[in-house]
Amino acid sequence: MSDDFQQKCEACRAGAPQVSDEELPGLIRAIPDWTPVVVDGVLQLRRVYQFKNFAQAWAMCDRVAALAEEVGHHPALLLEWGKLTVSWWTHKIGGLHKMDFELAAKTDSLFTPS
User: Fold this and answer.
1) Is 80 part of any domain?
2) To bridge 97 with a disulfide, which of 32, 41, 90, 101 should be the other Cys (CB 3.0-4.6 Å)?
3) CATH number, domain containing residue 50
4) Are the C-beta atoms of residues 82 and 54 closer than 8 Å to each other?
5) pLDDT (tens digit, 9 = 90+) per residue, 3-30?
6) Residue 83 forms part of a structural domain
7) Rounded CA gap, 31 and 88, in Å?
8) Is 86 part of a structural domain of the chain?
């Protein structure tokens, strides 16, 4: 894990730097299954994970929740039958921090396809 994870959510401090327009394309390339979306004027990273049933989606939701608690940085999670939508962004800075990209990649590592 990077030093960012060891710092317990450096991104959550007021004044933490947002990802710049110049950094964004390179960071997005590293997590190709994630989509940048703007929600209420805030840039977020979003991915929908598909599963065979509700229980598998719920298990993934639990793994993501445990990761979020570990680092003190929490995504939006939408749990549905056979589907989990995860959205990472940094509330405190109203946008994306590099840690959001690291957490998206870490979330991918938790995924076990059905």
Assistant:
1) yes
2) 90
3) 3.30.1360.20
4) yes
5) 444 445 666 667 788 899 999 999 999 9
6) yes
7) 12
8) yes
Contact 49, 59 (CB under 8 A): no
Q: How far apart are CA 15 and CA 36, in angstroms?
A: 22
The residues, any chain, with a CB within 8 Å of residue 85's CB and separated by 6 or more, are 46, 47, 48, 49, 76, 77, 78
What DSSP element (H or E) covers 54?
helix 54-71
Domain that holds residue 90: 15-97
9: left (phi over 0), alpha (psi -120 to 50) or beta: left
pLDDT of residue 49: 98
From residue 37, give the alpha-carbon distance in Å to each of 7, 19, 88, 92.
27, 14, 10, 18
pLDDT at 4: 46
In a domain, 22, yes or no: yes
Identify the DSSP state of 93. G
**Which element (helix H / strand E) includes 46?**
strand 42-50
Q: Which two tokens stand for residue 8?
A: 């317990």
Assess whether pLDDT exceeds 90 at residue 86. yes
